[in-house]
Write a structure and sequence with these properties.
Strand content: over 45%
Largest sheet: 6 strands, mixed
Number of strands: 10
Helix content: under 10%
Amino acid sequence: QVQLVESGGGLVQPGRSLRLSCAASGFTFSMYTMSWYRQAPGKEREYVAGISSPGGRANYADSVKGRFTISTDDINNTVYLQMNSLKPEDTAIYYCLSPLTDWGQGTQVTVSS
């Protein structure tokens, strides 16, 4: 079964860090461009970051550039999103996506003091 499972979300204070994980199963994700999206309460889902395949070129939304880093672990078929210097406006449900899958359950990130 082709699927993605996100994890790693939680409640953090502003300025702190979190690392999200997206475990892929049923396909070799390193053959495809993988992306992270997020949806904040009352807002539309928006693109956050992506990493191309082949090449591993990363791309980021302006709102997270310089703070977030997308990376992959080809051995474990996992995509990561390292989020540093988190802000309250980063609060959202975060989803990963591949060309082969639909939206998953996502993982909630809440940035609050």
